[in-house]
């Protein structure tokens, strides 16, 4: 089905500011532009963010949304083809291989590649503003007056917070983050490192009580690798933007781990000193009483995020599809559309979040006994029969929504608007 200018007309009168240019924001921008809306995507970083973990899609619903977006084939062309992921002991002896789908879903892609695909699909039809952020929102009967940290104030009909787990938009409309962010007792970190273990689209993971380190290679490069660390902890007080402080926390937490005979693990800890792309955050979930306040609505991790294990990227794309579709059906009536959006996604997002609560304890069990129990579970999942059963189980949450057939949702042309991309 080809989307024409006529079918895009329902939102031609609407101006929308989307805060966040990672995944959820550009996905929503793609849909809104097809319906004729004038969309501005705001990103605090000076350019598209690089790095981050690979993300995966699984099940019928994820694939359907990617196909309707028109990017399924391109996502598949950029897939990592991640293969063998092996649990080893502290002496680097192999214990069990993990089924590829467990960690990588049906198709896995780097977050950088996914973000770039959606940016390229929208940049000629959507205004991107990099290097700026929202300072203040003031809602009125006719729109939202937005003050920016750097740019001149502007007015929009609607504002969407797609700015992640620590959403500033959510804080502006719903209050302090501590009211909505639920810490799950673990922290996770990741950074690039040399491929010292000589891996090729594979990973090696080692756990001791309350801690785990994995080294991996996702792209087949003989030079590039990555490190992935998880540790158990109560909530920590630290500056999320202080790279040296985050490195110090990791170095202290892993200093006494007895991995003397796993040289690639020691190399990962050494690489931490020079890492400039460190991701470090609590494993946490966002829980809010509502997803919208007046003309402001939350999307993706900002409204129902989980740091890992909750299929957050797939969930964000599905919910962007629903939000844009409900706005189009309501012809821009935000009160009607936001209520319908929340009704459609509330149980779906809760179901996806529910499975994320096990990520920390499964990767870094708190005791030796729990580690042995986890390893036995992995061995069972390696059997062909149980692997298929568990795959269907993990897809149940991903497929836990009946997608509507919103009008005009083809992969064809979008409304022609000039490219307005700029730096703030």
TrEMBL record:
InterPro entries: FAD-bd, FAD/NAD-bd_sf, FAD_aromatic-hydroxylase. This is FAD-dependent oxidoreductase. GO terms for molecular function: FAD binding. Residues 15-172 form the FAD-binding domain. Pfam families: FAD_binding_3. PANTHER family: MONOOXYGENASE (PTHR46865:SF2), OXIDOREDUCTASE-RELATED (PTHR46865). It comes from the Bacteria.
